Amino acid sequence: MSKNVKIAQLSCGTEYSGIQPEIEAAAKQVNAEMVFADVDYDDIARIEEDFGLEVASPDLKLLMARAKSIVDGKTDVDAVFVATCFRCAEAALARSEVRRYIYEKTSLPVISYSFTERTTSGTLLTRMEALTTMARRKSLLAREKQTGLTAGIDSGSTTTKCVIMKDNEVIGTGWVPTTKVLDSADEAFNIALESAGIKKSKLDALGTTGYGRFLIGDKLGADLMQEEVTVNSKGAVFLADKQKGDATVIDIGGMDNKAISVHNGIPGMFTLGGICAGASGRFLEITARRLGVEITKLGDLALKGNYKNIEMNSYCIVFGIQSLVNSLSTGAKPEDVAAAACYSVAEQVFEQQLQEVEVKEPVIMVGGSSLIAGLPKALEDLLHVEVHIPKYSQFIGAVGSALLVSGLVDTSKK
Amino acid sequence: MSKILIYPTNSLVLADLVDRFGHEPLTIPQEIRKKVTSVGLDSPPLNITPEDPKIGLKYAAVEVPSGVRGRMSLIGPLLERAEAAVVVSEPEATFGCMGCARTNELVNFLIRAKKIPTLELSYPTNDDDARDFVYKIAEFLQSSEVLKHE
Questions:
Q1: Chain A contacts of B101, Cβ < 8 Å?
Q2: Which one of A167, A271, A330, A376 has the minimum C-beta count within 10 Å?
């Protein structure tokens, strides 16, 4: 059984939204417990002066006082979860500043979340898993080199990817669309083994990640089943050779997006988007289909166009696509439409996710969507920084898994 | 006996004052008590389920944060039954507290909109003000506008 992790809950509104049991259920699934810092009434009474942010809601004062108790070392915890009601502006300010405060003043992993009454333990599970991994496995996360012969499988919502790595090099890859989770994993695994020219029995270890990680991991006897935030961070800084210092990893996936602040290869603040399909790779797939081009050609087409020539009235995957269709019917150029689609996705990620993390250079974009050239270009325009696309970026989760699991092989040998 | 909504709705001091003058205080613990379905150590608000903020939609639109709507699902029914109200603004948390400034704003508005006899007071900060605070509440609870509901 893995070490029990204490997660400090700094929140406003979770009980009255009816989701406190969901938070506790998600924590329990990763062998963690939510704890609440004890504070005195005097701590709450003077917290606005101490912290510097004036708020009207008493529960936000309590939230800030609890944060200070952690920073002052009066409360012993392994990680911090900051949560407030979605659509509360005052709470959003407090949540953002408290998250930054914890990040800057402690070495504790911290995530924040804005919830509604629809938030479930399933929604929170990946976040809790990443948070506890950062708390539990710092030595494993510090790993910078892959050793031995290992494999990683990334079972994503759209595609399943596999890599074989040997002595810090990728020697085989497999990539298939995800249909049946287990069958797709087998297929990608076999393609990767064949391209590497090795047999499964020769592997030292296997790591899995992505939505199907547990199902595949159990069937194939994986040595490590890890959520995507951790493995993508590791995979990104490894492939981009940016293991030291700060970095920002952005992965726009088929179903959700990740924006992760990384320091020395270890994820710090991160956000997982997943509410809106208009900010996902799915939006670009539908655009490509409507334009009659392969998704692999959409990016190059977008580079030739100008997004400003298209009027898009909505980020929505339904109404946004409708705007694009209307443009085509009035004679718009396909390349402008492709550029507008890429810009729309990038802009939504920029507005809704990148505001929640510290964007520090280098910015590394990974995942299949990073190869749609118009998308990183649109992000560069929005962020005014260079966006790096490492080799094998579409295999990022599989590479991160193969890298991390090699650390477990070494540990067992010792 | 009149039904008096107190705000903050969990203020023991206000509930006691209303009770002493022969009226029925409408308080949030009464509503929370209905939600306690099993004996346990969990504090009562944990018995609120994700369905409660949906009940709160009767009082606040969907774009209002779920925490406000969850609170309104408890306070709203009290407000509907209220014949008069005593509202204390900006009290110390130890006096009674709903935790959320947006809920405070909404409840105060709804009380005014209901146009029931209402006493609005500032939280006292010294002994003289505290005495005056109690006198004003006593006077209000014995006034004809409150007693006419009996």
A1: 55-58, 90
A2: A330
Please tell me the pTM assigned to this model: 0.79
Question: How many domains are contained in chain A?
Answer: 3
Contacts of B51 in chain A (CB under 8 A): 18, 117
Q: What is the ipTM of this complex?
A: 0.89
**pLDDT tier at B42 (50, 70, 90 boundaries)?**
low
Cβ–Cβ gap B66/A115 under 8 Å: yes
Q: Which domain holds residue A178?
A: 149-229+396-413
Q: Between B49, B66, B97, which is nearest A13 by CB?
A: B66
Domains of chain B: 3-145 (3.40.50)
| Residues A384 and A249 occupy one common structural domain | yes
Tell me the mean pLDDT in the region A171-180: 94
The Cα B53–Cα B55 span in angstroms is 5
- Per DSSP bridges, beta strands A257-263 and A266-273 are antiparallel
Nearest alpha-carbon partner for B70 in B50, B92, B94: B50
- Please tell me which residue of chain B has the smallest CA distance to A24: B46
Query: How many CB pairs below 8 A link A and B?
Result: 95
Instruction: Tell me the helices (H) and strands (E) count for chain B, helix number first.
Output: 7, 4
Q: Are residues A45 and A155 in the same domain?
A: no
Mean pLDDT is highest, among A303-307, B29-33, B118-122, for B118-122
Residue B27's closest CA among B90, B106, B85?
B85
| pLDDT band (50, 70, 90) for residue A195 | very high
